[in-house]
Amino acid sequence: MKKLLLSAALLLCMCIGMNAQPKILWDGPTGLDVKFKRCYVQGSRCIIDYTITNNTGKDISQISTDGWVGYEPTAYDDEGNRYKWELNGGDFDNQQSSIGDVCMKGCATPLPKDITIKAHIVITNLDEYASNLTLYKHYYHVEFSNGQILNQVKLEIRNIPIPRE
Questions:
Q1: For the whole model, what pTM was predicted?
Q2: Do residues 101 and 124 touch, judged by C-beta distance below 8 A?
Q3: DSSP assignment of 87-113
Q4: Which member of 2, 27, 51, 101 has the lowest number of beta carbons within 10 Å of its beta carbon?
């Protein structure tokens, strides 16, 4: 009986783990909120949509992605593939930008207090068998209107399911 209960518990934990929601790890300033919206596939491209909301109470004069050496955006799938910076199309706050196999270039945009902006990452040449992005990671540069500057603010989104038809 104990083996049966242990097996059932293990199976339940595996099922829960497989259907876990994406997890956002953000070491940015308190009040600068990031929310995962959705992930979808178009051909061999995977698009991840998310939003950034400025609830800090201060205007941000510039927010941009950091593409400095050692801080390039990177994604990993469950098939063991790594997708990295390569300049190639994408969007940040509806501005053309790039971050290549992982797309979204370092273009800067202002972010007034209490405003939300949309961002998305485009991963090109996605492995046809990948069903999950285990990790997407990149860094932001945040500059407040009072002159305070935060470099290398890390954003990680883990466990992003890739919907397949």
A1: 0.74
A2: yes
A3: ----EETTEE---SSEE-----EEE-T
A4: 2
